[in-house]
Amino acid sequence: MIFTQHSIERALNMISDASSIVITTHVGPDGDAIGSSLGLYHFLKGMGKHVTVITPNPFPDFLKWMQDSDQIVPYTENTELATKITAEADLVFCLDFNDLSRVDKYTPVLTASAAPKIMIDHHEQPKDFAALMFSDPHYSSTCEMIFDFILATGKEELFTPELASCLYTGLVTDTGSFRHSSTHPSTHRAAARLIEEGANNSRIAQLVNDTNSFDRLRLMGYALSEKMVYLPEYKTIYMSLNQEELKRFDYKDGDTEGLVNFGLSVAGVNMSVFFRESEEKIRISFRSKDKFSVQEFAGKHFNGGGHFNASGGASYATLDETIRIFLDALPEFKEKLHNA
Q1: Among 111, 194, 263, 281, which one is least packed by beta carbons within 10 Å?
Q2: Whole-angstrom distance, CA of residue 303 vs CA of residue 46
Q3: SS3 for the chain, per residue?
C-alpha cells in the first residue's frame, strides 16, 4: 500500500502550502501521461489551486478533446513561458516518469526548480529525485494511481465527469483496452467507478481511436505494407521510419502512436519493435507477449526501460546502424524469444 495515511497527509500539506503548482510528464506524452496530468489538474483546481500542466513537447491531436487540454503548455513551443512558470512554482507533480532525463529538453529547467516535487509513477527502478515518491510498477497506469490517490485523500466529492474522463482515457490506453497483463481486478473496478462518475466509455473510445487524420492512416499503411520486417527465426517483427518518410506523410506528434502494437497481432510473434528517426536521435518502442522482457532487451542495448512487456529506448547512431545493433543483439535473446 503506497498511499498510506502518513504519505497522503504529507502530500495534502504540500498542496496546501503551495500557491502555484506545476504538473509535468514525460516527453512524447501518451494517453496515460495526458490523462493523469489533466485528471490531477482538475482535482487540484477543485481544491482552489492555481495549476499549470507543462509537457516537454506537443501531444497528439487525438487527445486534445479532453477538458482544458488547450491550457497545456508544451515546453518546446513555449520555452520562455514554461521556464517562467516552473521557476515560480511552489510545488511540482511529476507524473508517469521516474527519471528526470525522461522530460528531455525540459530537464535543466525542472532540475533548476527549487520547488519540492511529488512523483506518481508506475515504472520500475525509480530515481531518487522527488521529496515524496509514490512508485508502484504493479499498477496498470499512472491514471489508476491518480484515481487511488484521490480516494486516499478522502476528497471524492471533487470527482467530476471531466476528471473521470481524463483518468478513464489513460486507463484504457495504457492497458491496451484492458488487454495487457497489467490489467487487474482493481483496474476494472477503477474503470467502473470512473464511468459512474461520468466518463462516457463508448464516446472516449471513439474519440481516441476514430479521429485519425488522412495522412496518419496513409503513414500507418505505408509502415505496415512497406517497412514491416518479419524475422520468424526470432519470432520478431520490426518497422522503421526515417525523417524523409515521416515528412512525406506530413508527420505530426503522435501519428505513430500504437504502430508498434500491430506487430504483436501476427500469430507466433513475441516481440515487435519500431524505430523512428528524429532530429536528435532514434526513438525506439518495444512490445512483447507473455514471458519475454523487452525491458531487459531495451535496457541492455538501448539505454532504455519501462515495463516488462512495453519499453522504450534510444540510439544516437544512424538509423541503419541502430537497426544493425538491434539485429546483432537478437541471437543473444533467441532462446528466450522462443520460450516466451
Answers
A1: 111
A2: 39
A3: CCCCHHHHHHHHHHHHHCCEEEEECCCCCCHHHHHHHHHHHHHHHHCCCEEEEEECCCCCHHHCCCCCHHHCEECCCCHHHHHHHHHHCCEEEEECCCCHHHHHHHHHHHHHCCCCEEEEECCCCCCCCCCEEEECCCCCCHHHHHHHHHHHHCCHHHCCHHHHHHHHHHHHHHCCCCCCCCCCHHHHHHHHHHHHCCCCHHHHHHHHHCCCCHHHHHHHHHHHHHCCEEEHHHCEEEEEECHHHHHHCCCCCCCCCCCCHHHHCCCCCCEEEEEEECCCCEEEEEEECCCCCHHHHHHHHCCCEECCCEEEEEECCCHHHHHHHHHHHHHHHHHHHHHC
> Cα separation of 136 and 121, whole Å?
7
Question: Which residues are CB-contacts of 248 (< 8 A; sequence separation ≥ 6)?
Answer: none
pLDDT at 196 over 90: yes
pLDDT at 209 over 90: no
User: Residue 65: what residue type?
Assistant: W
Kindly indicate the confidence band of residue 175, based on its pLDDT and cuts at 50, 70 and 90: very high
Specify the pLDDT at position 203: 96
